[in-house]
């Protein structure tokens, strides 16, 4: 691997005030905020290399080339009887985490998202309390630039508005919405298509200027060290294979994401007692909720061949989208589409469909999925990947699958409408002959993919919630000196793409930490 020299030079001291496990979306925010105080030392343990001087990472439109590559932990999915068992969950192994790896679609969570968390026991996380954190974000969040607005994406927006009667939205973050079509807001710099990821926005400007910020790159955290009920530090393995204990005087903040945070806890003996004992892992703290409540935003795909090539300009090839509220009783959109300016046929090809030379895709997505999965270990060896059982489409009333069927039907209505219809030659998959509910459901579930939004595996909740892993102050229940701040703490899934919610979790966590040390 061509790994740039880490910045700044790694320190040999192994005791810091705070140890942040994961230099990703939330970890970058927390490290930046804590080190504004020059008297506070912070170590960031990041399993991957720096993203600095990496155009393959920093150029937003090159995101697809990162999937499955050397900067991807690439987690498989367990067999899914009602879904697609071949889904690979990309998790980034690079500074900035998944904000260095994804499309940077940036939605301020809807008020109903936060209020739902508060109702689920996350006291103090309601919309009125959380909204100010959005204004603190350092990322450059802007609507897709005019020069990046591809002609066929523009025509998709017009056609969706004409076919469905939804409003055109210019700037989804300007005010709450429950339906609309338009170009997304992205965390990027339009002038050069460079990311405004968590690392770019929060770490790059200060990483050479703050001697109290220590980036331990290519350093993998595999076990927490506890002294009784207090987290003392983290056992890590360096790139050269050496192992050591990185200690925290004040707190360990785990920001390793919805897969690697519960994985780290479980390998540290923190989790469901019976599961740990079955693998021979000494039980340090029986915490039944670790790994439970695994959430995701599954979506399916409908693909059309176009009459010819599509204009090349784009920010990241999925620049526009649509939100629909089918149920007027809910305060949020209950169906979403990403519009891909490429024929997204990775999963349909497994069923025998052929990728057209030129094409586009619509991907019906479930904003509030009702299925819940589980993450668990299969081995006491920390190097063995955990099992991710999302239990896709297993909700009792089949709401999730029905949402995708509705989505395919609405996508076809949009495809019939001008000006988009003039671009489209034929429906490639599932194909116009597939029309029945059962056929469409079977297709939609078999070709379903993820938009890489795992969440919820260390959920936040009230003291009487037996499966809550963290309290509203993000402290791990029953332990001292350790908090979690990443997508794993989500009690429920946000109706919109969750990256900004994770940034705001980071900002809130920094506030909680700073408030207790003043």
TrEMBL record:
InterPro entries associated with the record: FAD/NAD-bd_sf, GMC_OxRdtase, GMC_OxRdtase_N, GMC_OxRtase_C
Domain of life of the organism encoding this protein: Bacteria
Domain Glucose-methanol-choline oxidoreductase N-terminal stretches: 257-271
Location of region: Disordered: 357-378
Family, as annotated: Belongs to the GMC oxidoreductase family.
This protein's name: GMC family oxidoreductase
């Amino acid at each position: 691997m061509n790994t740039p020299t880490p910045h700044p030079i790694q320190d040999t001291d192994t005791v810091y005030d705070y140890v942040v496990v994961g230099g990703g979306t939330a970890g970058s925010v927390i490290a930046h905020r804590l080190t504004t105080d020059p008297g506070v030392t912070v170590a960031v343990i990041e399993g991957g290399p720096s993203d600095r001087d990496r155009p393959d990472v920093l150029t937003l439109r090159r995101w697809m080339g990162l999937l499955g590559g050397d900067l991807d932990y690439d987690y498989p999915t367990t067999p899914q009887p009602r879904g697609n068992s071949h889904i690979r969950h990309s998790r980034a192994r690079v500074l900035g985490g998944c904000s260095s790896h994804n499309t940077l679609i940036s939605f301020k969570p809807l008020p109903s998202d936060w209020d739902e968390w508060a109702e689920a026991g996350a006291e103090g996380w309601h919309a009125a309390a959380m909204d100010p954190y959005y204004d603190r974000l350092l990322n450059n969040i802007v609507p897709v630039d005019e020069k990046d607005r591809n002609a066929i994406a523009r025509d998709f927006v017009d056609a969706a508005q004409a076919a469905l009667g939804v409003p055109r939205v210019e700037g989804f973050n300007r005010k709450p919405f429950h339906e609309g079509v338009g170009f997304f807001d992205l965390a990027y710099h339009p002038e050069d298509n460079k990311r405004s990821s968590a690392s770019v926005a929060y770490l790059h400007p200060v990483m050479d200027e703050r001697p109290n910020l220590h980036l331990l790159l290519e350093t993998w955290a595999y076990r927490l060290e506890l002294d009784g009920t207090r987290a003392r530090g983290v056992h890590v393995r360096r790139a050269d294979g050496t192992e050591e204990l990185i200690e925290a005087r004040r707190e360990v903040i785990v920001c390793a994401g919805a897969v690697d945070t519960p994985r780290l806890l479980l390998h540290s003996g923190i989790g469901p007692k019976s599961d740990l004992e079955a693998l021979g892992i000494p039980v340090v703290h029986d915490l039944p909720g670790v790994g439970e409540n695994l959430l995701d935003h599954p979506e399916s795909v409908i693909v059309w061949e176009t009459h010819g090539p599509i204009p090349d300009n784009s920010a990241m090839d999925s620049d526009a989208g649509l939100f629909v509220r089918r149920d007027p009783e809910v305060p949020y959109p209950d169906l979403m589409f990403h519009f891909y300016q490429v024929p997204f046929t990775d999963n349909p090809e497994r069923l025998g469909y052929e990728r057209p030379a030129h094409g586009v895709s619509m991907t019906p997505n479930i904003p509030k999925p009702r299925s819940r999965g589980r993450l668990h270990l299969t081995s006491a060896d920390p190097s063995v990947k955990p099992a991710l059982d999302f239990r896709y489409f297993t909700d009792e009333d089949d709401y999730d699958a029905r949402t995708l069927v509705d989505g395919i039907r609405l996508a076809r209505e949009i495809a019939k409408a001008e000006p988009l219809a003039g671009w489209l030659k034929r429906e490639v998959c599932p194909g116009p002959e597939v029309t029945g509910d059962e056929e469409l459901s079977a297709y939609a579930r078999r070709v379903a993919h993820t938009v890489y939004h795992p969440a919820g595996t260390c959920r936040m909740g009230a003291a009487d919630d037996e499966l809550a892993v963290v309290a509203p102050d993000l402290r791990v229940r029953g332990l001292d000196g350790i908090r979690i701040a990443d997508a794993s703490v989500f009690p429920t899934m946000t109706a919109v793409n969750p990256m900004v919610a994770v940034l705001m979790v980071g900002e809130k966590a920094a506030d909680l930490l700073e408030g207790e040390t003043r």
